Amino acid sequence: MSQIRRFVAALVILAAAASIAPVAAQTTDPAKDYPARPIRIIAPFGPGGPGDIFSRQLAQYLAELLKQSVYVENRAGAASIIGADVAAKSAPDGYTLLTVSNTLTTNETLFPDRPYVLMRDFVPVAGLNYSELMMVVHPAVPARTLGEFIALAKAKPGALNYGSAGIGTPYHMAGELLKTMAGIDILHVPHRAAGDARSAVIAGHVEMMFDAITTMAPLAQARQVRALGTTGTTRSKVMPDVPTIAEAGVPGFEATIWLGLMAPARTPKPIVDKLNAAVNKTITRPEIVAAWDRQGAIPMVMTTAELDAFLRKDVEKWAAVAKFAGAAAR
């Protein structure tokens, strides 16, 4: 009987080992068969803005590289908080990604009651690009230069307004920074998305706006709006005749918009690393680099660790700017 017991025990052990082995092999390299189904990129911005446009360009090339469908889902609203919350609550399996920008790092200060914490509930995946902003006014505004706009604003405190894609967006914060550094009083008019604010400026419903040069340059060239300045440290190759705001009368002024990708926390690191490599390969393709250069966007090639450090520093930066400018979630 003792031999039978030993034989049965051995069979039980072998059966258990056989059932565990496939699981162990699977969990050892979760990226081996990834992706096995379509990948969703949540863009918490409205259609037509840089966050939407560049997410879709990325999705197209990532699909080719990963041999799997990649699609963009716009979830705009509440200063990008709605889309970010959807992503934060998604399964951490690599099949849901979130496009992030300065808006998300600024929200860490402006919206303390948001339902997620950026650096706790997400992990960095990859950088995409960064570009300058451009300050534009409706052609009816009697200011052909930044200096004239500032003089007009000082002559009529609170009478002029500026549009943005919502509270906490780079466009909003650039406006608040200008108010503080130029010593002017202009009214912030937040919109649901950048496209809405853009339409409001073109129609003359708001006088001024900061917008990504990648999307506003064609409108300025078509004279639907008048460009008064760009926000980089040097003049933009896209609009070389437009001075920087720093050289046009507000020394030290600088603001940009950047984009990156994050995934829900606890997404397996091998999958994150695979995505990082794929994104970096995509954004350094010659055709992507050339196309983005024409639009004034520069690729941000980063490791996940470098992006993590960048994001944490950006949270601190915009916390300081918000405090300095007196910006609030209102």
Short summary:
The protein has helices at 2-28, 50-66, 81-88, 102-110, 118-121, 146-155, 170-182, 194-203, 213-221, 245-248, 269-283, 286-295, 304-325; strands at residues 39-43, 70-74, 96-101, 122-137, 161-164, 187-190, 208-212, 226-230, 256-264, 297-299. Helix 2 (50-66) crosses helix 11 and helix 7 (170-182) crosses helix 13 (304-325).
**Mean pLDDT over the residues:** 90
Please provide the count of β strands: 10
Beta-strand level of the residues, as a percent range? Answer: 15-25%
Shape: globular
Tally of individual domains: 2
Helix/strand-derived class?
Answer: alpha/beta
N-to-C CA distance: 80 Å
As a percent range, the share of helical residues equals 40-55%
Number of helices: 13
Q: Would you state the CATH class of the largest domain?
A: Alpha Beta
CATH hierarchy: architecture of the largest domain: 3-Layer(aba) Sandwich
Largest sheet: 10 strands, mixed
